[in-house]
Amino acid sequence: MSEGPFLVVGLGNPGPSYAGNRHNVGAMALDELAARAGIRLSPGKGARSRALSGEGRLAGRRVVLARPTTYMNESGGPVRGLLDYHRIPETDLIVLHDELDIPFASVRLKRGGGEGGHNGLRSISRSLGTKDYLRVRIGIGRPPGRQDPADFVLKDFSATERKELDLLLAEAVDATEELLTRGLEGAQNLVHART
């Protein structure tokens, strides 16, 4: 396990109209992480100008927490800029994102793999030239019936889901801390047994 610092990024779309969307659950979890760690996110300059970010400690590790202020499909540029600025290798990048292929209220951890049609992950992989980064996959479930997944992710959580949303965000934050503390395999053993 690296000594860090780690870049922890929460994906979402900017602006109040997207704030409650399923697609923004990564950004929501990042905000919870920042609150837990007492890290203030603020606009950066230069290469960091397209993200809100802050530095501190989380689970005993040095971290840079960041939320791109671009649209989801342009997340790669800000992530690349932050990695370069802080001299963090791609292997120490952790991306928190929504995941259609995991049931709602479940969290899974992995390194690398495909993007599953996720435009934020696709943009990051393209900008980095690799898919070999850590992911905290926050389950939002599949759309009901024949609803288009693209429409589903851009809708707010249902009233029923909102009742469990705080627990889901807490689980994602806990999983991120376990990842920093135990490394991928140790964290997977713990987190995957819980949800």
Automatic annotation (TrEMBL):
InterPro entries: Pept_tRNA_hydro, Pept_tRNA_hydro_CS, Pept_tRNA_hydro_sf. Pfam families: Pept_tRNA_hydro. GO terms for molecular function: peptidyl-tRNA hydrolase activity; tRNA binding. The record marks 13 as: Discriminates between blocked and unblocked aminoacyl-tRNA. The active site is at residue 23. CDD domains: PTH. It catalyses: an N-acyl-L-alpha-aminoacyl-tRNA + H2O = an N-acyl-L-amino acid + a tRNA + H(+). The keyword Coiled coil does not apply. One of its GO terms (cellular component) is cytoplasm. TRNA binds at residues 18, 71, 73, 119. Belongs to the PTH family. Monomer. PANTHER family: PEPTIDYL-TRNA HYDROLASE. Catalyzes the release of premature peptidyl moieties from peptidyl-tRNA molecules trapped in stalled 50S ribosomal subunits, and thus maintains levels of free tRNAs and 50S ribosomes. Hydrolyzes ribosome-free peptidyl-tRNAs (with 1 or more amino acids incorporated), which drop off the ribosome during protein synthesis, or as a result of ribosome stalling. This is Peptidyl-tRNA hydrolase. It comes from Geodermatophilus ruber. The gene is pth.
